[in-house]
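Below: protein 1.
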Amino acid sequence: MKKTTLNIIFFLSIFSIIAQDWKQESFKPEANYFDIIENQKNQLSNLRSSTKRADIKKVKQFERWAYYWKTRINDDGSFPNPMIAFNEWNTYQQKSDIKNNNASDWSLIGPKVIPDSEITSYAGMGRLNVVTFNPTNPNEIWVGAAGGGIWRSDDAGATWIPKGDQIPNLTVSDIVFHPTNPDIIYLASGDFDGRFNPSIGVLKSTDHGESWQITGLNYEQKDFQLISHLLIDPTNPNTIFATSVAGIFKSIDGGANWELKNGTTVFNDIVYKEGSSSVLFATSIDTEFYISTDNGENWTSSSVGLSAAGFGRLDIATTTSDPEFIIGINANSVFKSIDGGMSWSVITKPPTFETQRGYNQTVIIAPDNKDLILLGGVDGWRSIDGGDSWEKYMNGYWQSGDPFFYVHSDHHDLEFLPGSTTEVFSANDGGLFKGDITSNDAWTDLSSGLAITQYYKLAGTPQNADFILAGAQDNDVTHYDGTTWVNRNFVSDGVEALWNYSNSDIAWSCSQFGKLERTTDGWATPTTQLTTPNGAGFVWPLEIDPIDPTTIYGGFNNIYKSTNSGDSWTNLNFPGGTPNVITIAPSNNQVIYVGDGSKVYMTTDGGVNWNNLSLPVQGLIRSIAVNSTVPEEVYICYARYNAGNKVFKSTDSGSNWTNISGTLPNLPANKIVYLTGGDGDLFLGTDIGVFHKNDLATDWELFGEGLPAVVVNDIEIHYGTEKLRVATYGRGIWEIDLQSTSVLEVTEFSENVLEIYPNPTEGKLTIQLKDIEGESNIMIYNLIGGVVENFTTTELSVTKDMSAYSSGIYMIQVKNGNKQIVKKLVVK
């Protein structure tokens, strides 16, 4: 009786854990984001204070998912139709009255090569979910990324070409080729492993990846949510299988039509039995194994012995050396079958094997040797004795003195090179690696050229146009010096970053939950980890004062201010929740706007008093911009989906609002920026690119050409070079020259119209105008857009005292009529 009671308690406890698993909960048709978040508070509470690497990674996995989806759900917490981005993008492009008049091209800054690292075990390009090969040319490799689309290499991984940039926010879970006609390729969209981007269905190319079409299995049907794997019948290539949240689908006409063959569970893996054209194996996310003996028409559960292996997603591997031999793994166990899946036994598992609840989980067996097995989890484990013992073969945290070698952590797919029994490829969170599974030699990183980094934020410095800091998911805060990319924060998700705009040797780099590091010598010596207040979110805001570069503001449990570069902090006690956006007026640093998502507060006295602004519509406010010379003119943009309510403008500090959304597509708006020195120019980063509007335009336009249809998380203007830069979530960092677009197309005065002296200056400055009549507007601003002087005059000679301003480079803009001139000023 006692034993029975204990078994029941154990079963119920396991069931409770599974029932509250956020990955499985998100699959349910009635899934609600807010309910999942609430359930996870209790489940993860004990892990948040843990210092164990496995616990830290579990928390990060959930927080990444929560941060991503928070801005992409419906306001009631339900999940939107996954086709919404695809449909909105197509609708926008088809509107005949919408044209892109900004003909300038975007260019990729990078990373284009694997970043260096201050430690040996962390540099990476970004996450890949799958690797596969052209069946007629094994030197042609294809990979699918988690937000960065689909890529092809024609030279065994030496160089890479993106092949799906026209598809908005493309994420890939699997890729399969027609076995004899490599022009025909099928792609499973969505992120089954990470549960980030939703699937729009199975896509098909008939021209070797040059273009893609939606097949009959797509989300307009609304009967499944994500696709895990695809499988083509090698004897009849028009027959294709797809495992998905809704079950196993089969097409017998090349993807035009699909039929659900088994809808009893969420299916994961699917393979043909070695040597058979009619027997298939499939698995579920609940450690169930299924067999079909009639080419997928009917399926029978065959899970005897698997109940002892725990719960979770089941991945399997077979080998031509013994068609009856199968190895399977889930989050808790390793097991094998020696009778073609009719029965199973648990075998020894690696001592610290971790899959983060199936996020990173894959297994292969050598085709010619069933004793040679490779498991992929956080690390890669090898067995040379059929699973009796294991060695940590690929170590994502390898350091000098450890056995074997480094391969980036979190393996999603392991594949043998076609025709080889030794050469293996790993698609992981850092990119693509290859090596000889029979050797102890280090593997080769093939990730250079894969511009797939998922960035949250970026920062530039006016002191050096080449310098960039950017925070990436799972791949650190990256520092670019114009030539080399170097990871600066160790083993983390990089988030926000800042430069001291008067001294580029001083910079701040942030990682999740408020961690903050500072360098004061350009990383010549180790950074200082600063003590920060508690309560910051996973991705949290850090902003610099537009006038004083030693003053910074951070969003923790409240908004805090530091006047000594982060050594100490003062709570400004704004009355809202955890800040998600902080914007300081460029012309008056006493005016600060702070948002907590649902509300916006404003202070006009540096945080002594706060006003709760009346907002035009309810929703999640993602970003705030302020007119560079008029602090009362403020702009807000909304995330999530609310057609026609994306961007609003107020000219009276939020008392009244005007909807300026125009014909913007109904997609999350992530960042809005106001251009200092322009004609009311606004730039808006969305889930499919960048849009532009100014005082002369009646509507928004897609800005520039050549930027992939990708999530743009952050925008920054480098005023010294007049470049607009963006951080994308899956395609790295891009820039566009504002001078070559219509944005800065103004008539310039001749050089002799404006003289400024002394230049450089340490105090007194004379602004001398010549051959000019009437009223002139003169604006002096620093190279982050902070306005220090803005005035109108009819005088031809004006004197200003610059001694109170920080040293650095400033721009002096003179506008008169429809002409202008801009010159640089150096303040010592």
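Below: protein 2.
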Amino acid sequence: MKKSFVTFLLGIVVLSAAGQREILKSIESDFSNQLKPFVFTEKVYAHLDKPAYTAGETIWFKLYTIDGSSNTPSTVSKIVYAELLNSKNEPVLQGKVEVKEGSGPGSFYIPFTVETGTYRFRAYTSWMKNFDAALYYEQDLSVVNTLVSPDVSMLETKTDSSLEVGIFPEGGDLVNGLKSIVGFKVWDHTGKGVSYNSVILNSSNDTVARFSSGHFGMGQFAFQPAQGSTYRAIITAGTRTKTVELPAAVNSGLVMAVEPAGNLLKVTVNGSADQLNQHIYLLVSNGKRVKAAQYQLATANGASFLVDRETAGEGIIHLTLFNSLRQPVAERLYFSPTDKILRIVSDVTPGSTGIRSPVSVSFRSETAEAQPVNGDLSLSVYRDEPGQSTPASIAAWIWLGSELPGNIDSADYYFSNAADVMQASDNLMLVNGWRKFKMNEGPLPAKPLMTFLPEYEGHLIRGNVRIKSGLQPATGVQVFVAPVGKARSLGVGTSNTAGEFTTLVKGYYGPSSLVVQTDKNAASYQIELADPFSTSYSSRPYTAPYIKPAAASQILENGISTQVQNIYLNDLLQRSKEPVATDSTAFYGTPDSKFFLDKFTRFNTMEEVMREYVSAVNVRKITGKFHYRVNDQPRGQFFTVDPLVLLDGVPVFDVDKIATYDPLKVNKIEVMHRRYLLNNLSLAGIVSYSTYDGKMPAFTLDPSALVVDYEGLQLQREYYSPKYATAAAKENRMPDFRTQLLWTGNMKPSTGNTYNVSFYTSDLKGKFTGVVQGITKDGLAGSTTFSFEVK
């Protein structure tokens, strides 16, 4: 009997364990399904040539696209959207930058109409627009317009004593009767953390905790809230004080604490009385993937989970706790240091030099184990300015900045060998972490809607078609999108049930007029194009601009230098070009026949030209209207419908307009006399006309066509860097007031893993800094700086 009872109990235990494993498996499955849209994510990092500018200068930058899961270069998106926003989140400058193999160069010229202030450079891909704008790359920078006197409020002559305070209980909530760690951060009007001391008082004015800040205004303390009491913190930062209320503690809940234990992470969970004797579940995720899942029974002594750090992976680890109802109730972030860092060793010669003199710099890229490796590098050399801030390096952004939505002071500190870096990292995770879910509000949230496609072939143009009479969506309408004068680019899309269409337009660079039209019943439809740039913005506040009086003289000198360069070197500074590898052929490739009309006797009408010279095209007049019939040479017979007719790359659906067009404006005619497949269209050949200027002169488009000015992919501006290799060049009286001595967005190794770069100084003296950023194809990211002085 006793044996049977023991067997019965063992059976219950086994069944219970099996049941808990099934529940854990179910939670893990649901959690993974929620992360599926995030399985492929992208990050963007921008290396800007310097942190501060004056109006009239050019912002040079290189964009790196990163796979969010592997932290290696992403080759999926081929377009990155870059913007310069003012403090009202209004775009001042925008550009679509082409990237290849995970990187691409770009630039913005800052016009003299830009006001002095703090601006935000941000960059993202089309795919990233499906997610929170807080995950875009963002970098604040200052712009000073020396032609306009700054607002008095921008002068740093006043004292702003305000303090901002953030309070972050570990895991999410304070629970009465349970001891918790609380993260603290205090910062001033500049957004930077400040040092402080603090005391925690209860509602009876008894002191329950004291603590001081660590690095960057962050700190933590432990305390146990009691039911019926409230708590406040009194913060003292120098002569400034501030009192804030702590978050109210709840009576029911779970609290978690995370600490390293050798090669493990120990997660301790305690719960209120109503949470005891129930199973709780821990999911460990990293890189948008579940790495581990465990369950424990919550008892009066708590519950402990041990997580293998190697299994959890490097970087930011998410530890999410679920209660017995499968609800996410607490989450904690933990930063596990990475050794996937690219070491870049530099040697600059000489350490100090004179004006218009040569400078040589040598770089060596290698792994953390000093093994040689080549990377995709960019380099900037600029003059130091007073009060310049240092943006996060590419490694710090990939592993920290891109994962956390808040400000991170001195992000590269967390990759240093400082003695207290682990404590500082733990504070950072406490105060800058965010929770994926709204805790205690039921099961996991709905999946995000994937509205924007990744642009893995080129720029996608989106829009919608509506029926004019009632403005309801028009379904199944063919829409043709063509830049004027760029026959290599033609997009065709079909509207869906919502009237929306998407089409790919390849090889479209620089500004142009974009013609958008339908092939049938054009007068019945109204077409609109969607803004390709994101209209979502992060909630991160802008730092109020402050101009240090000590920097006034150098700012004025920079302004004069910029004006001089714009006056004397404007043509050199504004030169731009399409990428060297751009294919200039039309979208249909090599034509079957080509006619340069200057080689023939000229006729007065295009009808005569076609009848006399273009034998592959039969010109007919049916019920008073012209029609073309192209000879389908592979089949040896003429098509029975009109071909696609193009004028300077723009479709023309009324052949009458082409047949009566002035042939003296046309340079050449190209014909595809075979069937051509374009997206879902089967074309009865193609007849393409090109004018001399490529701008459809004296041609009247269908009045129903939408014609808009539309910027294609950004042209590549050529960087100007003079050389003073001869005495005559050095003695040239043309002023050289460059504060930016060198920018290269595509460094090539000279031999092996060694990069050699040389350039010349300008007429300006001072300390100059060089910054190198880069990443390898395997995801080793790193940077280095060097400096020299011009006397």
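DSSP finds nine helices and 49 strands in the chain.
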